Automatic annotation (TrEMBL):
Organism: Iphiclides podalirius (scarce swallowtail)
Domain Thiamin pyrophosphokinase thiamin-binding: 135-206
Domain of life: Eukaryota
SUPFAM superfamilies in the record: Thiamin pyrophosphokinase, catalytic domain, Thiamin pyrophosphokinase, substrate-binding domain
UniProt protein name: Thiamin pyrophosphokinase thiamin-binding domain-containing protein
Pfam families: TPK_B1_binding (PF04265), TPK_catalytic (PF04263)
Amino acid sequence: MTVDGGTSQWDLFIKKLPQEDQNTIHLPNLVTGDFDSITEEVLEKYKKKGCEVIQTPDQDYTDFTKALIELNKHCLAHKIEIKHAIAIAQASGRIDHILGNLQTLYLAKQKQLLGYSTKLYMLSDDAISWLLFPGNHVIFIPEETRQYKKSWCSLVPIGESCMSVTTSGLKWNLDNAPLQFGELVSTSNAFDGSEEVKISCSNTVLWSMKVPNIL
């Protein structure tokens, strides 16, 4: 699935692949967005290739949010169950776009934009982010992340303050600590070399971590 200007980026990526690899790549099932950043040439190209093109002009939501809504409709119509949805999105540049992407991660759960069991992740450059909802979590840390000297991770409250967070496996662990803006926010944390990080949180937090060469 490609979204608005992301379709143009996808097209450029495909063109750079060897021809034999291009022939093995599936076309997007869906091309969505308000189409204010995709070129007409690329849009027509994928229409002619037979991709389902859905314009989503509603400006109350971002293209990312609307894309998840259309993805869910597609899955329901075709009786497809998705366990994991992975969005590739740039995390540098405009701060409002970054915050908009985080809003979509939050809305996906709060508004049930995807199936109840579908987990949503966001890849950006060499990092991955997702929301940890109240409860206990175990995150397995890839070896390349553990061995990379500049690896980082963070725990940031989102939507509300987190009254209590307890962790193990981090360089600076938290012990029943509250996280909230204006007080403690665990950015620029790191790993202690353990194969897994355990996190218990009372409220929703955003977990982000470096994964070298993920893209």
